Amino acid sequence: MGALVFGLLLFLGTHSLRIVAEDWRARQLARLGPRRWQGLFALVAALGFVLLVWGYGQTRLDGVALWQPPLWTRHLAALLMLPALILVAAAYGPANRIRAALGHPMLAGVKLWAFAHLLANGRLGDVLLFGAFLLWAVLDFRAARQRDRRAGVMPAAGSVAATVLAVAAGAGVWLAFASFLHRWLIGVPVFG
Length: 192
Fold this sequence. Notes:
By secondary structure, the chain is mainly α. The chain is built from 9 helices and no strands. Keywords: Membrane, Transmembrane, Transmembrane helix.
């Protein structure tokens, strides 16, 4: 459990600097320069990610069950993952209407991913992992929207074609995960 908690602190801590220490982050960025800052950030975040993946795997071996979710929550989680992956695809594709409407669709997708997995899993490790990501995504989404308002940032309107591309890409990734990737990477089949 310690590796999971420490990994979450490192990974989400680095990704929370703009929420809790924007001025400190700006000073470090100016002092170190963009390349060194990004390298240090990536190193700490990668270490955190490795620890949280390994720690979460350990909690699955001897997990403390808090509750037993009903079977239907797995199906609901699988369904919720479709819009979650479309939101993530919209964040990284060309300017699209989803990004124009939300501003930060990746964070909205992370919120939906975490919520869906909290519904379908009832072990302590699940609550720590998905609960931490849900809390982080809620706080980061709020902070990012506030920064955008202060700076007067408005996302580009985006095209219908780019929006269709984001939906198709997200649906394709969802299909791959639902068919085989989730079982291969996580060891749990989505349907079955």
